[in-house]
Amino acid sequence: MTEKMIPLHADQDEHLCMSRRQFLLAGGAMVTLAAIGLPGEVWAAPLHALKASYPRTKIGSLSALKKGVPIDFAYPYPNVQNILVKLGTKAGGGVGADMDVVAFNQQCPHMGGPLQGSYKDAFQAIGPCPLHLTTFDLTRHGMVISGHATESLPQIVLEVQGDDIYAVGVQGLVYGYSAMTAKKA
Ligand code: FES
User: Fold this and answer.
1) Which of 69, 70, 72, 150 has its CA 20 to 30 A from that of 101?
2) pLDDT tens digit string along 90-106?
3) Which domain holds residue 5?
4) Do residues 82 and 105 make contact, with C-beta atoms less than 8 angstroms apart?
């Protein structure tokens, strides 16, 4: 069986077809790159995760934040508890001059384990969850580092105006909700 070369330029019309093997190899490389991302570009990639918008609510101020010291706040409902934290490291969805201020829900997306008080500043991570030990990376949109959870930790979408920090939406599904509406499932 002969294989034709993958065309590099439009004028290489004698090589217009790609073999099945070449197609699979090229596709596999693209899928792998999409899955692992490129070093240093995780926060630059566009986000396509489910995002629900809610009324813009002031939750804190940049000048009041200390690196590695989380602040609790409720959003978008009084029973949905989150933390606002300055990581000291550029993060996906981060706001502020250093793009390092992020906010996350405090209920594990696996089975609702409480994550309060488990922020680890040395790793910019939350966890391990007390139920099944999942840990989440706050620099990468709450991605699972290890453990049983398969979903990222829901991230609170932030905006900054002057010194004020506002919550404007939720990216992901908070545990216990079938959708990010006012009532629990
Ligand atoms: S509830 Fe958190 S890992 Fe299972």
Assistant:
1) 150
2) 999 999 999 999 999 99
3) 1-36
4) yes
Select from 104, 106, 132 the residue to mutate for testing ligand 1; criterion: most ligand atoms less than 8 Å from CB: 132
Distance of alpha carbon 33 from alpha carbon 4, whole angstroms: 24
Do residues 19 and 72 share a domain? no
pLDDT in the model for residue 180? 67
Phi then psi for 52, rounded to 5 degrees?
Answer: -110, 135
The answer to whether the CB of 148 is under 6 A from ligand 1 is: yes
To test the pocket of ligand 1, the residue of 105, 108, 115 to mutate (highest count of ligand atoms within 8 Å of its CB) is: 108
Q: Are 19 and 100 in the same domain?
A: no
Shared domain for 1 and 75, answered yes or no, is no
- pLDDT per position as a tens digit, 19-61: 444 444 444 444 444 444 444 444 444 455 578 889 999 999 9
Q: Cis bond leading into 78, ω under 30°?
A: no
Both 9 and 72 in one domain: the answer is: no
CB 180 within 8 A of CB 52: yes
DSSP for 20-33 reads HHHHHHHHHHHHHH
Query: 184 lies in a domain?
Result: no
- The number of the ligand 1 atom at minimal distance from the alpha carbon of 112 is 1
